[in-house]
Amino acid sequence: MTINYAHRGASAYYPENTMLSFEKALEMGATGIETDVQLTKDGVLVLIHDEMVNRTTNGEGFVKDYTYKELNKLDAGSWMDEKFAGIKIPTVEELIYLTLDKDIIINFEIKNGIVIYEDIEQKLIDLIYKHKINHKVILSSFNHYSIAKCNKISKGINTGVLYMEGIYKPYNYASTVGANAIHPYFPAINEEVIKQTQKHRTQINVFTVDDEEKMKFFLNMKVDGIITNCPDKLHKIMILYK
């Protein structure tokens, strides 16, 4: 069964990467959550997409320059709508607690490119094992050195390589960093590559698919996961495919 990954939660409707967005995604039928992990100045793993807080909060500057206490004072909801005023940037642990008793897969995207966070992989993996959810997690990143590092630390967690443009035989490439999944931007993959990837027993999780016809195409191709801003739309279509 294809996993319905809510991209930063139900981000088409609620402030991205917030607990409200994650909670609403689950209500909409999401069976997975995709989110972005960064590190505060004092080493707390937090969920926010941009390396800077400017776009999605009322603050300014880099996440890495804030302590968690300082980051927690920021408003992460008003940028989208005043009715979301006062919403906070959550921690990795808050999302883990939300999903602990649920059959939900978490796709943690490690943001380790523009800002290089020292030991972010180790910190995240330690937290995953602390809560014994290694079987309910997949780690991904555009920084494939980061994925290789994750696989060196632990082979007990699924990993995927994120990419935007066509990679020749991506299933072969993924194996070079120890990943068992590819996470392509949806225009970067076609039917032939999907079939070959499946033949090589490599998972496919495509992003970010909000168009219903494209959702139907990828469901027909039986990809492992579809990452979407609209988990409600995907859920309704998936009911028809059961």
TrEMBL record:
Residues 2-238 form the GP-PDE domain. It comes from Clostridium tagluense. InterPro entries: GP_PDE_dom (IPR030395), PLC-like_Pdiesterase_TIM-brl (IPR017946). PANTHER family: GLYCEROPHOSPHODIESTER PHOSPHODIESTERASE, CYTOPLASMIC, GLYCEROPHOSPHORYL DIESTER PHOSPHODIESTERASE. GO terms for molecular function: phosphoric diester hydrolase activity. Signal peptide: none annotated. Coiled coil: none annotated. Pfam families: GDPD. This is Glycerophosphoryl diester phosphodiesterase. One of its GO terms (biological process) is lipid metabolic process.
